[in-house]
Amino acid sequence: MAFDKAQSANFFANNSASITTDADEERLKKLKMVMSLRKNGISSPQILKIMETVPRAQFLAPSFTARAYEDRALPIECGQTISQPYIVAYMSEQLELDDRMKVLEVGTGSGYQAAILSKLARRVYTMERYHTLHRMAEARFQALNISNITAMTGDGLLGWPHQAPFDRIIVTAAAERIPRILINQLKDDGIMILPLGPIGGDQRLLKVKKTASGIKCKELCPVRFVPLVSGVAKQM
Ligand code: SAH
Asked: 28, 162, 186, 187: least buried by Cβ within 10 Å?
């Protein structure tokens, strides 16, 4: 079929318009997400900017990417979940990070929380009990050119003794009690954020401060996380 000049100009105009619309749509979804974070009390401009910049869609399977910027937890591989953006931003804010700090994350999952932390801290160490999740997260860090995250397959309940002590520790799976080993791997004046409570039950986000004389705990808000399970997963 031969296009006349007017038709072909129209064809290209429509086509490029639809490409721009896809990018615009994604930008709009991100902006809406950030506006909802701000409305719900996330006040740090730095964290809001990072939440807008890191592409959550790239941490999800293709069947969920359309929903990447909804403020909800979503399923990932190995029966686990990527946390809700609000919780990711809130936990990041409560960690009170600066760019000289070394952070341990227990529960890499998709790698999204670690990617957010990598923009706020000097170095992030992240542990995951599923080898598959660890490998997928590492591929995402590489694709996004993030070079200050070290990831490993391992039992986070044992911490990362070779890299301890840490300025901050974040646990992204719910424990029944505060893991003593992790407290031991936290520096004095360090902060640990973790969800505490039974599987599918009454869980609370806890902020733990370590001082020379012991630990001080503050309850932040009710949450729902997958459980912290001891040992490396047998299923890859
Ligand atoms: N931070 C993640 C959320 C992951 S959900 C994200 O941004 O996507 C919690 C993760 O903790 C799961 O992937 C689960 O496999 C992992 N996990 C549970 N117990 C663990 C343990 N003892 N050591 C390491 N990872 C653990």
From this structure: 162
| Widest distance between CA atoms in the chain | 83
Atom of ligand 1 nearest to the CA of 83: 3
Which pair of structure tokens corresponds to residue 152? Answer: 């490993």
CATH of the domain at 79: 3.40.50.150
Note the pTM of the prediction, 2 decimals: 0.91
Q: Output the ligand 1 site: residues, CB below 6 A.
A: 80-83, 106-107, 109-110, 112-113, 127-130, 133, 155-157, 172-173, 226, 228-230
Q: In the Cβ-directed half-sphere of 23, how many Cα atoms lie within 13 Å?
A: 4
Q: Which residues contact 148 (CB under 8 A, 6 or more apart)?
A: 118, 121, 122, 123, 124
Domain enclosing residue 89, as ranges: 53-223
